[in-house]
Amino acid sequence: AYKPTDPSVVEQLIRELQPLVSKRTCGWTFVDLGCGQGGLLPIMRTATMPSGSPMFQHVVGVELDPDTHRQALKRVAGDSSIEVVCGDMFEYVRTVCAKSPLLGGRAVFYMYEPLWAANMPKPVRDGLYNELLAAVGAHADSIVVYITGVVQMHERHIEQTMLERAGLTLQHQQRVAQSGAANKLSATYNTMEIWRAGGGEGESGGRAVSGG
Question: What is the helix (H) or strand (E) element at residue 197, kind and residue range?
Answer without folding.
Answer: strand 189-197
